[in-house]
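Data deposition worksheet. Section B asks for the primary sequence of the deposited chain exactly as it was used as input, without tags or linkers unless they were present during the calculation. Section C holds the resulting structure in token form. Section D is free text for depositor observations; keep each observation to a single sentence. Incomplete worksheets are returned to the depositor.
Section A, Depositor: J.P.
Section B:
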Amino acid sequence: MTHALVIGGTRFIGRHTVEEFLAHDYDVTIFNRGNHDNPFADDERVDHVQGDRTDDMDLQTASLAAKPDVVVDCVAYKPAEVERAVEVFSDVDAYVYISSGDAYGREEIPKREGETPMRPCTPDQAEDDSGETYGNRKAEGDRVVFEAAESGVDAMSVRPCIVYGPHDYTERMDYWLNRVENYDRIVVPGDGQNVWHRAYVEDVASALRVVAEEGEAGEVYNVGDRRLVTLEEMLDLAADAMDTDVDVVHAGERELAVGGLDTSKFVLYRDYPHVLDTNKLASLGWESTSLETAMARTVEEHCESERDGAEYDPGREAEERVLGVLDTL
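Section C:
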């Protein structure tokens, strides 16, 4: 394999995927609409084909222009998009679809490939654009991959959990990093011990390459940090990376209610643990970055950016009211 086509390739997972393949001596072509700044515009190693992946002719043009050995599909959000892709790229050595841990349809610890049931997907859900059906659509995309593999296409899936790291435009982690950066006391819902499995973005990128090179057609591979941390431990890692100290203050439902808050107001909080088994991916030779290194790189880029996660902010004044009540207990 020498040439990789990355569908997407400029924002977050796709950007790191391009860098991963370049670091392993691949020629790389990115295919996207050109709606976002291209960090590789001045990099002669990266070609750019502009087009809409939902347009069959544009997809075919990208295939003919790049003649890829590997295709990594970062922006397939509907099953029909995966169906078109596995047809157009039916002769490549590896088509790797980015699915999601949200494709799992049952709460259990851990969620395992081929064992934990997947979400169903109705025809209406398959065409929907809302966040409520995201997992359903990703699961159906996986089923398209499985069917394509049965027909001889070298197609496979990678399922990340919550992805974090440099250039994360979702700003989910940025909210908490902003809190650590600017406040001595941070309100954390519950007892701080909740677990929502996360995946460092560079590890997701390396997983995509490893699966392309070593994975089996028709298989799906979970990816996430090999060592999990609680929400409170995540904040401790961030504080260490910033060389600061924070006081994590736990607040239950009753205390949060004083500020008009509840646990749903806090991003990256989940009542029931979400954990993916990553042993199948590790068996291919994939390794994850240490949490300390991953957080240090994440913090460094966060501090250089203007992202603050403000859209997830439950309101500092509301938090101050909660802190005031807790101080009296």
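Section D:
The mean pLDDT is 97.
The first strand starts at residue 3 and ends at 7.
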